[in-house]
Amino acid sequence: MSLLEAGMMASFGLSWPIAAYKTYKCKCVHGKSLTFSYLILFGYICGILNKLLHNNDYVIWIYYANAAFLLIDMFLYYRYKNNPVPKTAELPIEINEEVEID
To answer: What's the CA gap between 57 and 75, in Å, rounded?
Structure first.
């Protein structure tokens, strides 16, 4: 039983549903790194293979869930990659004093 591994995977895995939800809501992917996602996916595949070959326990299901949510986020990346970056509201900046620089 890998209780600590399960805790690490569950804690780390909470970020993927949140990331996928945010991508879905804003329909933009600016600031996302697809390379990073592929590296994480590779890590999950290695973890799954390790579980299948050497230590098959319930933690494998957390690997599957994390990989599934990551794949959903990656699918949304490809779906929304051509959407424009959302514009931010630019507020005028007023400078009220002069500062002398030595």
So the answer is: 28
Q: pLDDT higher for 86 or 69?
A: 69
- 68-93 residues labelled b (16+ CB within 10 A) or e (exposed): ebbebbbebbeebeeeeeeeeeeeee
Ramachandran category for residue 32: left, alpha or beta (phi over 0 → left; psi -120 to 50 → alpha) = beta
For 52, other C-beta atoms within 10 Å of its C-beta total: 11
Q: Which residue intervals of the chain are DSSP H helices?
A: 3-13, 15-26, 34-53, 59-80
The tokens 């991508």 sit on which residue? 23
Are the beta carbons of 86 and 31 closer than 8 angstroms?
no
Q: Where are the alpha helices (DSSP H) in 54-98?
A: 59-80
pTM: 0.75
Distance between CA atoms of residues 32 and 23, nearest Å: 10
Check if the beta carbon of residue 35 is closer than 8 Å to that of residue 85: no
Say what the pLDDT of residue 88 is.
64
